[in-house]
Amino acid sequence: MDDTNGHEAGQDDTALRRARVQHLLQEAQSLLLEAGARSASVYLERAMACIDVDVADDPTQIAVAAAIMPGESALRRAMGGALTIVGTLLARNDIVALDEFGRLLALFGDVSAVEDPAMGSIIDGWSATIRHAAGEVERPMNA
């Protein structure tokens, strides 16, 4: 076996492992969504987006990979919290329900992800935060 064949075999093994990981993450995400754990599924979406990003092959992808990693910065969390407060104020003034605000933000995230996956992922995380808050706020007090 020469170096070329060994190198190709290594690439094939890596591709198979990545495909297996992708499949398992998709399966886990389906289970989370079925259980109503949308917030947790967002982190799996980000992990899946990073599987095929090889920054060694394309250095321009470093920023994208960093932006879609599961660890959120304090700024992103703060902005998500601020959006939740804005959504709560809109709901209290009967402008739009908090859950609907979260769904609209998710739609915006999906559309944004077409052109900018990192941006879409961040917005989707904010949407999940808002929808989680909606579940807490809109739940009956005695439940």
Description:
- This protein is mainly α and 143 residues long.
- It has one domain.
- 77% of the residues lie in helices and 0% in strands.
- It has helices at 3-34, 38-51, 62-67, 74-92, 98-115, 117-137.
- Helix 1 (3-34) runs antiparallel to helix 2 (38-51), helix 2 (38-51) runs antiparallel to helix 6 and helix 5 (98-115) runs antiparallel to helix 6.
- The longest helix is centred in the first third of the chain and has 32 residues, at 3-34.
- The chain is elongated.
- It starts with a helix and ends in a 6-residue tail after the last helix.
* Total tally of structural domains: 1
What is the number of E strands? Answer: 0
Instruction: Describe the main β-sheet briefly.
Output: none
Shape summary: elongated
Spans of at least 5 consecutive residues with low confidence: none
The fraction of residues in strands falls at under 5%
Our count of helices gives 6
Query: What is the distance, rounded to the nearest whole angstrom, between the alpha carbons of the first and last residues?
Result: 67 Å
The whole-number mean of residue pLDDT values reads 74
Q: Radius of gyration from the CA trace?
A: 19 Å
Structural class: mainly alpha
What is the H/E order?
HHHHHH
Helix content: over 70%
